Amino acid sequence: MGMPVIIEVCDPGVRTGTVDRAYEWFRLVDRIFSTYRPESEISRLNRGELALADADPAVRSVLRRCASLRTQTAGYFDAEACSPGDGVDPSGLVKGWSVAGAARILERDGLRNFSINAGGDVLVRGQAPQGGPWRIGIQHPLVGDAVAAVVAVSDLGVATSGAYERGAHVIDPHRRAPPEHVLSVTVIGRSLPTADAYATAAFAMGAGAAAWCAGLEGYESMVITEDERVVTTAGFDRHRVR
Amino acid sequence: MKTPSRTLTAALAMTTAGPAVAATPVAIAASSAKVYHGARENMQWGTVQVTITVRGRKVTAIAASAPTERPRSASINGRAVPLLRTEALRAQSSRINSVSGATLTSRAFDASLQYALTKAHL
């Protein structure tokens, strides 16, 4: 995936093998799910060389979850929308899902205080190095080395969808065109993969993003519009420190 | 007649899906609750509709319903609560541990996340 992964652990006495296992998990996920690898299960599935029944159970699980999220988001999160006839691309869910899997690996080895950042999807547990909750900056969509907001969180996931990075794109599955009016959407909640899918869907909605996000149960949001307004839910603001 | 709050106006103008729909003006009723439905947007996977409930001169709920979901209400005990707050976009300066962004490539990471992270190390 070419995705940078940063794991920061604050527990005392962490065994080096534990974090290695987390990185090995990310490599395994890439081998199964990467649409850039012709030999990945997803690629072979899309070419008809692999039957879904013969794929890794994780593939079926992820695709089922994609289908459920497609319904929940009225089609704005759609693993089949990238290119008609090209098959499925669950990458929008896989990133957050793989981070959640890495967190379980760390937790299984007894770690309680860590953060994982994979390509801008962030999951945090326990206490930050400075003590207290983790302080997560939300990337400023227009100023490359700045943040637009800071939230203090623990045991939550933070996901952001946007189109401000050159080469990154999200397509509105209904209009089959890039969305308008919104620079980025950030969603915070207990499940990072769900937050990721919601952020992706909301971003694809364009002008409808903030209203749709306001109705999400258990997930808080921040929408940055192209006229440089920040629209937040009350719950999101409760996490903000800036 | 009281002008609807900016939050409500914004929510009405921003339909939940697809191309902009002409917003149905909100008639603020004098007494009992009235429910106003935005136009249904027919999407590939079903219809999405925004519904607002007005009691007296206050909006008490705004709900966006997706085809298989029950409407999600956003009011508390009949009190109108601001669902969304709007402010100007600013660059914040603050100590941070990590950055959430739509960064997908290593190159983009070098340009932004790395800077933010090294700046933030406490």
Structure overview:
The complex is a heterodimer of chains A (242) and B (122). Chain A has 242 residues and is an alpha+beta fold. Chain A has helices spanning 16-33, 41-46, 57-72, 91-108, 192-205, 209-214, 234-239; strands at residues 5-9, 114-118, 121-125, 134-139, 147-153, 156-162, 182-189, 219-225, 229-233. The longest helix of chain A is centred in the N-terminal third of the chain and has 18 residues, at 16-33. The relative contact order of chain A is 0.13. The model of chain A has no long low-confidence stretch (mean pLDDT 89). By secondary structure, chain B is α+β, with helices and mostly antiparallel strands. Chain B has helices at 6-13, 106-120; strands at residues 34-37, 41-43, 46-55, 58-65, 84-88, 98-100. In chain B, strands 1, 2, 3 and 4 form a 4-stranded antiparallel beta sheet that branches. Chain B is elongated and about 60 Å long. The model of chain B is unreliable at 1-32, 39-55, 62-81 and 104-122 (pLDDT under 50). At the A-B interface, helix 3, strand 3, strand 4, strand 5 and strand 6 of A face helix 1, strand 3, strand 4, strand 5 and strand 6 of B.
Main-sheet strand order of chain A equals 1-2-3-6-7-8-9
How many structural domains of chain B? Answer: 2
% residues in beta strands of chain A? 15-25%
What are the low-pLDDT stretches of chain A, counting only 5+ consecutive residues below 50? Answer: none
Looking at the structure, what is the overall shape of chain A?
Answer: globular
Gap between N and C termini of chain A, in Å?
32 Å
CATH architecture of chain A: Roll
Stretches of chain B where pLDDT is under 50 for at least 5 consecutive residues are 1-32, 39-55, 62-81, 104-122
Oligomer: heterodimer
- Tally the helices of chain B: what do you get? 2
What integer value in Å does the Rg of chain B equal? 20 Å
Structural class determined from secondary elements of chain B? alpha+beta
Instruction: Calculate Rg of chain A over CA atoms.
Output: 18 Å
CATH class of chain A: Alpha Beta
